[in-house]
Design a protein that fits this description.
Elements lengths: L1 H25 L4 H24 L5 H30 L1
Helix pairs in contact: 1-3, 2-3
């Protein structure tokens, strides 16, 4: 369980850096990309909240939270890649 949590924390750290970079680029971006950004911010908040409340849980419920967070982080990461592609095309 600890390894799973560490892996998620590393993924969160990497996506956090990418999120910060995208936020800067979005200041110059078209409204269409901003519209894609808003739902991602909601998902990001959900992941942060889950991880804060998770603590050092080793129960089945904790494992389910980790698995759900991983899925959400993968979705966010894929969406970030799509936004970067659009920014670079602009």
């Amino acid at each position: 369980m600890s390894d799973d949590k560490t892996t998620l924390e590393e993924l969160i750290e990497a996506l956090s850096r990418e999120r910060d970079e995208l936020r800067v680029q979005l200041q110059l971006a078209k409204q269409e990309m901003r519209d894609k950004w808003e739902p991602l911010e909601d998902k990001w908040g959900s992941v942060e909240s889950r991880m804060r409340s998770l603590g050092d849980v080793t129960s089945d419920a904790g494992k389910e939270v980790l698995a759900a967070s991983k899925v959400l982080l993968d979705e966010i990461g894929d969406a970030y890649k799509d936004i970067w592609k659009e920014i670079r095309r602009s």
